[in-house]
Amino acid sequence: MDYNRPLTPIPTAEEEEIAEEQEGEEFRHEIEEAIAVSLEFQAHQFQLEEVIILSDAEYAAELQLQEAIEASNSAHVGSSSSSPNIPQEAGHEYEQNFDSTQVGKGKHPRSGSQLDCSPKRLRTGSPIAIVNVQCRICFEDKQLSKIFESKGCSHGFCHDCIARHVLSRMQEKLVPIPCPDPNCSENLSPDDCGGILPKKDLDNWCSVLVEADIPLSQRYYCPFKDCSTLLWKDDVQEVGTSSGGVIRQSECPSCRRLFCAHCGVPWHAGLECDEFQRLDPSERGQDDVSLLALAKEKQWQRCLQCKSVVEKDSGCPHMICRCGFEFCYKCGSQWKHARVPCECPGWEEEEEDE
């Protein structure tokens, strides 16, 4: 046993407690440092994963700068050492400096300042990291460039949700179209959505807005289905009027076709408005109207039962239609009895002639 070795003092309970506290403090400090390093690493990773956006103008400027450097490099490398503008020593140094741009770095030949010509550093502005914003309708994270910006308010909604909102309102012709935020009093405009909606939908939106500005009592539409142009009643071009001064025959300024402004249908040539109104709705087509106008001109009669047009070329006025209905050709009324067929004033004259 080595009695000369100094004895290790036995720590007291208080010293042990202090030592444990120190160890715990050191351990907590190490944990905090590890957490800080981890957070810093994650932030660094996030920055690396962000896509750097450069505008077209910036990208074009970078390409021009690269081309200028390469062109200058080629020109100076191929130049003669006896150039009157650049001394031989300066030209040699110039070539060396521009040769170093092949690896991305070099010195300005006059100022001697360090250049970094690598593509990753050729930017005219600071890198712009993509920022994600949550849409307040679909609650999805969208890039800031995909978030709608209104001139009247600052509520954030993605382009897709705004487009659906506008189209649904236009389908019902509910204008003006408000901001989707229920607490916002601002309205959207076609100018706000110019980069979101197709031109066809924007034109339709403008048409709906114009229509909404016209009072219902003044709205009029061209009756031709392939036109349907919206007209002011005051703008309806008068071509002819009825005996009572009512505008009848009019011309659409868009398709240049005639229509009856009183009946609201394509022009019923040969028929008065009251005659047209007495027609069954199924008989108001353009072909039917043309046939009835011709029948009126030729003084043909119509069967009261089947509505067929009948032409008599000879014989008595007693007509029997193919459907079995009997009527008087002179007045068109039903043939009631052989001796007293109708009250037509010309019937007696017809009998006397026979």
Automatic annotation (TrEMBL):
Residues 13-24 have a biased composition (Acidic residues). One of its GO terms (molecular function) is ubiquitin protein ligase activity. Residues 131-348, 135-180 form the RING-type domain. It catalyses: [E2 ubiquitin-conjugating enzyme]-S-ubiquitinyl-L-cysteine + [acceptor protein]-L-lysine = [E2 ubiquitin-conjugating enzyme]-L-cysteine + [acceptor protein]-N(6)-ubiquitinyl-L-lysine. The keyword Secreted does not apply. Keywords: Metal-binding, Repeat, Transferase, Ubl conjugation pathway, Zinc, Zinc-finger. Residues 1-24 are annotated as: Disordered. Pfam families: IBR (PF01485). One of its GO terms (biological process) is protein ubiquitination. Its EC number is 2.3.2.31. It is an enzyme of class 2 (transferase). It comes from the Eukaryota. Its cofactor is Zn(2+). Might act as an E3 ubiquitin-protein ligase, or as part of E3 complex, which accepts ubiquitin from specific E2 ubiquitin-conjugating enzymes and then transfers it to substrates. Belongs to the RBR family. Ariadne subfamily. This is RBR-type E3 ubiquitin transferase.
